[in-house]
Amino acid sequence: MTQNLLFCEHIGDIAAVSFAMSENSDPASLPNASPPNVTPPDSAGSTVRREAHLANYSRDSIYQVLDAGYLAHVGIIAADGRPTVIPTLFGREGEVLYLHGSVASRLVRTLAAGVDCSVEVTLVDGLVLARSAFLHSMNYRSVVIFGRARRVEDSEQLHALKVISDHLLPGRWEESRQPSETELRQTCVLALSMEEASAKIRTGGPTEEEPEDIALPIWAGELPFETTWGSPIAAADLAEGVGESAAVQAGLRRR
Question: How far is Cα 83 from Cα 104, in angstroms, rounded to an integer?
Answer without folding.
Answer: 19
